[in-house]
Amino acid sequence: MKTSKLAKAIRLDHPQFWLLTIGSGLISIHLTLAWRSGNSNLLSTSLLFWAAISFIVWEKRDNLSLESGIIPSFLGFSLIWIALFKSASMTSFGGFLYVLPVIFGLGLALIASGFKGLNQYTGELITLFSLSLSKLSPESIIYPLTLLTAKLSAFILWYTGFEVTLSGINVYLPNGSVEVLSGCSGLELISQMLGFAILFLLVFPQNWQQKILVPVVAATVGFIVNAGRVALMAFIVTKDNIDAFDYWHSGNGSLLFSIISVMIFGSFCWFLIGRSESENQNSRLS
User: Fold this and answer.
1) In the chain, pLDDT over 90 holds for what percent of residues?
2) Predicted local confidence at residue 7, as pLDDT
3) Would you state the pLDDT for residue 243?
4) Confidence of residue 93 (pLDDT cuts 50, 70, 90)
5) CA distance linking residue 116 with residue 254, whole number of Å
6) Which of 6, 73, 105, 141 is deepest in the core (most CB within 10 A)?
């Protein structure tokens, strides 16, 4: 009797062990590729997302249904092998590194739980998909957002005392100008902040009103902070400082604005948690 129970326990442990091994390997591969690409913003965001998702999945591991079939397992392995083969044969990753996490996540979810069990990982998969949102969005979404970014950047400059003229996506100052291209639309930062919003809701469940409010606040913070970054770059252009412009545009300076966005959004989340705790205490006392 004891032997049969032990054997059964070992059989139940094997899928979890191999899933953990495969998942750890895929995460390491993506982080390594992000590091080799020199994209510090993607690397830091991916590290936070993978760590948070791993923690969430680990916390609910005992409640997961780990039953898959031949077809979903085959499809999951196929997605992973195609992604690995493509990443190994590419000389320039571009937007592929942004899409790779959701491919890995979907493939691993299919192997673990099949088609019927995908709903167990909905939030985690949406979070990974948010990384690729800026690379998969059509121009019909990016261009209007770029126009709004240019308008808000011009307003920030005007409000702070600069003589500024706006023409489409071009922001003109007396001693220089900047053209707000799609890369500076803010969609990448907005999508990152939406990912953090989903993670927050997964870890700290909220009511339906807050489930709407949290993503809206996250997207708004990302949009405003990115507009401030564009305004700063326009100011730097007037000083004819190319090194400073490159630093804030594509160097580590751009990462600082991501940190600022996360700190602002984190403060908002902290306020929500504190408010929920106080409401719970008041309801208990009453």
Assistant:
1) 47
2) 43
3) 77
4) low
5) 41
6) 105
